[in-house]
Amino acid sequence: MCDRGLHLSIFKNLVAEQFPETPDVEPLSRTQILIAMGVTAVMLLLVAKVWLRFDSAVTLLPLKWSAVAILEGLGLGVLITLASSIVYRVWGTYRRSADYYLQLVLKPLIWLDVIWLGLLPGLSEELLFRGVMLPAFGLDTIGVALSSLCFGVLHLSTPKQWSYVIWATIVGAGLGVSALITGNLLVPIVAHIFTNLISSCLWKWDDYRKQQPT
Fold this sequence. Notes:
Blueprint: H1 7-18, H2 30-54, H3 67-90, H4 92-106, H5 113-137, H6 141-153, H7 162-182, H8 186-211
């Protein structure tokens, strides 16, 4: 999500350790952010692979390419983006958390980097949480709830970020339900990538406008 992906948790932890009470810190460098995204994606993929290797009872949720699945994913991505926008406007605690970390992570990136910000978390997180964890916990309501809760908790850096954990859990539940209903991992993958891309682009564009002379 970017609604940031799980890689943001690494960024948050680094900053929280060094600046636990400081609301305004210098952004990480572009190189640091890109490396962190790549390393985190590889870690998640390895966890998913090891889980499948040592738990023979778990079968990866199928990924079936089709135009319908892509359209379903795009539609879900639009809904998540609109819902996130509403939550951002009406929930002050979440808005402050989102503003702080979007500033920290997105500002150093160039426009082309946004592609990686969409692809890497969207692919790696969905493979683990919806592709492996959901079938492991059960393809039912309990499985969706548990995998979504894990998805949310792993975005926690400090107790102050509880609002983002709640919203990440809710978004994870939406992605999980889509996987459950369609039986196709492609749907949440497309939705996650689309949401990250749109959210990142909107923030970058708004930041660009603010920097222009009035």
